[in-house]
Amino acid sequence: MDKTLPLESLEFIIVRTPEREEKYMGLKGTFATLLDSCCRKQALPGFYQPSLLAEVINMGKSLRLKLSGEMTDDEMLSCMDTAIRNMGGFPAAMDNQSDYIVEVRC
């Protein structure tokens, strides 16, 4: 039995902070789930602080998030790593272009 997923069932997401970026892969719908949680529920998956998201801007295939407080790039990426893993996504090395971009700042 082949355990690999076909490429068309996956989507690729880049998370960018002002100084760093990480790449993720998830099943189709991972970005839509993040978008729904941030825009409609005003929550970052895996976090239950209602004040963590200070601003959310939906730009179609891009999402801009402003987190409250002051955080380093590493701390912002850690938050996003937790959120994406809570939706079944995972870090992935990828050479191809991403399907979606999440920009994070404080």
Describe the 3D structure.
Helix content is 23%, strand content 32%. The chain has helices spanning 30-39, 73-86; strands at 10-16, 21-27, 53-58, 62-67, 90-91, 100-105. It has a six-stranded mixed beta sheet, with helices on one face. The N and C termini lie far apart (46 Å).
What descriptive keywords fit this protein?
106 residues, alpha/beta, six-stranded mixed beta sheet, 2 helices
Measured on Cα atoms, how large is the radius of gyration?
A: 13 Å
Number of strands: 6
Distance between the termini: 46 Å
The figure for the number of domains is: 1
Mean pLDDT: 92
**What are the secondary-structure elements, in order, as H or E?**
EEHEEHEE
Largest sheet: 6 strands, mixed
Q: What topology emerges from the helices and strands here?
A:
Layout: E1 10-16, E2 21-27, H1 30-39, E3 53-58, E4 62-67, H2 73-86, E5 90-91, E6 100-105
Parallel strand pairs: 1-6, 4-6
Antiparallel strand pairs: 1-2, 2-5, 3-4
Summarize the structure.
The chain is of the alpha/beta class. 23% of the residues lie in helices and 32% in strands. It has one domain.
